[in-house]
């Protein structure tokens, strides 16, 4: 007689065999022109068709079309013929060096198609996860000098609405296809595009693993006015060697906020290329740039000088803030291999003092004042005792950015890219020293581009591509609005926010470093509120989730570290009460929650610095009514009693 555990193993073995046979049957076509591959849970389906020399894909969820038959190709004006197919699958987990999760599940089914392109040999990979898909080509044999174009259509419903980042302006959207077709001037859409579907599903269109193919440049999206479809392309001139394209990615989630924590782009990225990443540490960072001109109660005025930087370092050491960033104007001129440092700054003294205090330094550089030489730049920064580089105004140049990341890693430098850089989705897995980037509008420049509504749009659109350097966390809102800062808003009284909202934004926007833009004294005046930011274990999260969100209206995000939860919520220009159900807590356990809240008197312009803090006991399932002022926010620090 068979034992129970033997019978169990027998059932599991033959159940898996049946599933594999089903997948193989689904992927193999009777006429070698139609192929199907499903997600591991069977809810997503991708159909591939090869007809009249073209390859098309279609995406379905539970039998309903999300993307109708759409062309995909790699060599322009070349007929495609699928010759063979095979199936792969994987179900493993991996641990990122830092991130929104301490462990990520990589579970997919993959269809691999051998494609003949009039003599050129390629493979088309179709990888299907439970919440997204990826398409990529590998070109194995072709003529040197071939012009490649990774072209992909998105045949969407006419009722779908589109959103897109818009550099340092408010993100575009909602835009309908009819709106885009009727516009006299073509709207330039960039990744990640968010598609809001009438059937409640949300999509995001982007790419991942550009590191594998920097020859292709940044993905471009256009509107095909003839076919009335959205399309994307990457072009490259090939050098005769086998090459793998980036992944074309489609994320699929019912709730729009889940697109921000979707791990498909990371799973598609090349694994870490850094053998020993122990020197890479996420954290919080003070920043000098926005503090210039701030006057303290003891008569000191912050500027670009040794005394100001010593104050920053002392405060960072006292509050457990890991980094201090020295921004532009610390140097006046650059020549090959040499920086001319401003006469008021003793950089060597500042570096030595920071090391003594246990504070790491990051240093800014761009090419506007001369060329140091990138081949020596990173080694020089390391020799100065720097732990990172903020690279400004390099432009959206893929090969240059890829090289900068790799050279930084060789010299043990974190790298933060400024001013609308290459999105490079997934690069933080491949090179975890790529700690953040300003792929958004950072605070305090043009207020027209940074309002409570716009913040929420960026948190639900720009943030999908990866970590953002947005510089949230201003506390001296009245002082900033009065125009006393040298680098404040261009128009006074246009900063619409509350101090609690600023704290919540620091949690909501995910980054490897939280860059804090205000003066140490501004934080010290509200030390009880600053406590929430102090306690954030930046980049060390075990779990992250968007609890509730609505485009342009509100967002509520929760992140867990061990048994402790941090929750941050913000609203747009309208005051509101948001019901937050604490269903994510453990059963039969009592928790202490500290609330950081707007008050009845708080208002994003009239009274932005009014707040209250209180503590109570709660349990799983409790519903917290988060009351937020206009432009306001709400925070919770939850830990076991």
Automatic annotation (TrEMBL):
This is Glycoside hydrolase family 97 catalytic domain-containing protein. It comes from Flavivirga jejuensis. Monomer. The keyword Hydrolase applies. The keyword Calcium applies. InterPro entries: Aldolase_TIM (IPR013785), GH (IPR017853), GH-type_carb-bd (IPR014718), GH97_C (IPR029483), GH97_catalytic (IPR019563), GH97_N (IPR029486), Glycosyl_hydrolase_97 (IPR052720). Residues 1-29 form the signal peptide. Residues 292-438 form the Glycosyl-hydrolase 97 catalytic domain. Residues 540-638 form the Glycosyl-hydrolase 97 C-terminal oligomerisation domain. GO terms for molecular function: hydrolase activity. Residues 37-271 form the Glycosyl-hydrolase 97 N-terminal domain.
